[in-house]
Design brief:
alpha/beta; single chain; 5-stranded mixed sheet; 9% strand
């Protein structure tokens, strides 16, 4: 069953066993009641047999998937970027999309994505909401800095912004024109309001953490240098059960941290990283990788933040620190660009992340449990 899902409607197509062309079954309203009627109708038409549905991952979420699974049938949410597309196919309609999905599902040419459960989705929504608010805060700060620079005011070079001293400096600024003073105060209020929203949601995220089944894994991941509790939450919220990856190479490929390749015959050519997969987790890993530019050491801060981690996690974290700090030093001395080096470190960091997570993952989540 191929479903082309939209906000208001769902186009339905059926591919029966064999080589016959799929059959288009029309459109239904995208409501739970209409979907329930569709399931009952199709189940009766095929003598109560198991039905396999599929639809593309998109903004409509996983509610339809959960309803289909709860009905006793099977469903796959497929990756839109991996749906085969003919170069000469220039016509796109809901009917054609539904028929195409049904045909490709029958032939086994679709790639299913991992669907989070409700608990996992809740934590992911919280972490992404915080990320959105952080972007708003960053934009408000850029706008305030740009306004001050236009009028000849700038914070001294070498001093950190957004500290209490910087806030006091902003509060004492006096513009020549009263209307410009109004603009300045508006920008300041917007920046402070954005910062308060980020702080509030961060607090909510930390309050939700103890109720999460992956909270023990978070405690172990913070043993890694460059990964604090917030970074560990984001990584696990985006990636979920890391034991579903059979090897660290699969995780690296999923994060888009492996080189692209175009090889033919005896020639092998590699390019920039693929940038596929989960961009939120990839960005967090790259940010964490910057901390490995310093020499490996066991500081008081690193020991304190790893206090709740298991002994095995601490051992892996120290092994990672020794290797990655050495790798950063070796590659930079060889003349490599520091940004490229940081991405390479992030790729290897993903392997250590996988190693800790698969050891600490709760047993009910393990594959085959």
């Amino acid at each position: 069953m191929g479903l082309d899902v939209h906000k208001e409607t769902i186009a339905v197509a059926v591919a029966e066993p064999g080589r016959d062309e799929p059959i288009y079954r029309g459109e239904i309203a995208n409501t739970p009641k209409k979907v329930e009627k569709l399931i009952a109708k199709l189940s009766d038409a095929y003598d109560g047999g198991l039905l396999l549905f599929c639809y593309e991952a998109g903004p409509c979420g996983y509610g339809l998937y959960r309803q289909l699974i709860a009905s006793g049938h099977d469903c796959e949410v497929v990756a839109p970027s991996k749906i085969p597309k003919a170069p000469g196919d220039r016509i796109k309609t809901d009917r054609r999309d539904a028929l195409k999905l049904a045909r490709l599902l029958r032939s086994g040419d679709l790639t299913a994505v991992w669907v989070p459960d409700r608990e996992q989705e809740r934590m992911r929504d919280l972490s992404r909401a915080r990320d959105d608010l952080k972007s708003q805060e960053r934009k408000a700060r850029q706008q305030l800095n740009a306004f001050l620079l236009r009028h000849g005011h700038h914070w001294p070079k070498g001093k950190t912004r957004w500290t209490p001293a910087h806030e006091n400096w902003l509060a004492e600024l006096k513009m020549d024109d009263p209307w410009e003073q109004v603009v300045l105060q508006t920008y300041i209020d917007a920046e402070r309001a954005a910062g308060e929203r980020v702080a509030q949601l961060t607090d909510q995220l930390m309050r939700a953490l103890p109720e999460w089944s992956l909270a023990p894994v978070v405690d172990s991941l913070v043993a890694l240098r460059g990964i604090d509790k917030l970074a560990a939450i984001v990584l696990l919220a985006e990636l979920g059960d890391l034991s579903r990856f059979d090897s660290p190479k699969q995780l690296m490929a999923f994060l888009g941290l492996v080189p692209s390749e175009h090889s033919s015959g005896g020639r092998r050519r590699q390019g920039a990283i693929t940038l596929t997969g989960n961009s939120h987790a990839r960005r967090m890993l790259v940010e964490s990788a910057w901390s490995y530019r310093f020499p490996a050491r066991q500081t008081k801060h690193l020991k304190a933040k790893a206090s709740n981690a298991s002994a095995e996690a601490k051992r892996i974290a120290w092994k990672a620190q020794v290797r990655l700090c050495g790798r950063y030093r070796t590659m930079t001395r060889a003349g490599k660009n520091t940004k490229l080096v940081c991405v390479a470190i992030a790729r290897e960091l993903a392997g250590f992340l996988w190693d800790i997570a698969r050891r600490e993952m709760p047993q009910p989540l393990q594959r085959g449990a």
